[in-house]
Design brief:
alpha/beta, six-stranded parallel sheet, 250 residues, globular
Length: 250
């Protein structure tokens, strides 16, 4: 049985904690590598990165694929953007590539963001985070509030100002695009053009909002299970939907 390395990238303002329960749900031949960006998780205390060249250089040292194993990238929201652009960068540098990508709740390249949080002042950003339930509605010390808003601002800047993607740089490995039917952060229209950037693609719709992954981890893991052989070793079937999901995206 092939060994599979699963590299998971978290959303803006998040950490590897998002994936902490996944290892117990994965097959025995899968190994979870939950990546923390600087400034959080096991990288707490380091300076957050808000520029893509610096982030990609950092990740190329952190994420070194084993050519003897199959490797899969899974990313949610900003994490999916990271998985995509890191793969593009690895192609340019002729590095070992992942065998498949799972991109969750992520707009297609060249689609403009719907938010501009990175441009807000500290106070406005802090209150926006509370309003959207990303921070508790209680008084934090100035130092803690500054630390948190700096991490969020760096992540939002990455999400709102991604590298330029070209349609001639097609990904040739299977790419699975995961989306929730009530996601207002990444609406359906913003993912429709993903097939222009990958040769082998498949859409999967879940019931829920932007953070559906938090309460549907078992269903997501089931997707990884069911596609272990098909998507890693061959072309994924397009428009392949689980019966639990309400309707196809297109």
């Amino acid at each position: 049985m092939n060994k599979v390395d699963l590299y998971c990238f978290h959303h803006a303002g998040g950490s590897s904690v998002l994936y902490r329960q996944w290892q117990t749900l994965l097959p025995n031949n899968w190994t979870l590598h939950a990546v923390d960006l600087p400034g959080r998780g096991i990288k707490a205390g380091t300076v957050p990165l808000d520029q893509w060249p610096a982030l990609l250089e950092y990740l190329n040292h952190e994420v070194v694929l084993n050519e003897n194993n199959k490797s899969v990238f899974f990313g949610h929201s900003l994490g999916a953007m990271i998985a995509y652009y890191l793969t593009c960068d690895q192609i340019k540098k002729q590095k070992v590539l992942p065998s498949a990508l799972f991109l969750s709740a992520c707009r297609a390249p060249q689609k403009k963001p719907y938010t501009h949080y990175s441009q807000l002042c500290d106070t406005a950003l802090y209150h926006a985070l509370i309003e959207h339930g990303l921070l508790p509605n209680r008084k934090l010390t100035d130092d803690v509030a500054k630390l948190i808003t700096d991490v969020f601002r760096s992540d939002f800047k990455l999400a709102e100002f991604p590298p330029t993607a070209t349609k001639d740089a097609l990904l040739t490995m299977p790419v699975h695009i995961l989306h929730a039917n009530k996601d207002t952060v990444v609406p359906h229209r913003s993912i429709a053009s993903w097939p222009q950037f990958c040769v082998k693609h498949c859409f999967h719709q879940f019931n829920g909002d932007h953070m559906y992954i938090e309460n549907q981890r078992h269903t997501v893991i089931d997707l990884l299970h069911s596609f272990e052989n098909q998507q890693i070793n061959s072309t994924p079937p397009n428009n392949n939907y689980n019966d639990k999901w309400p309707m196809p995206l297109c």
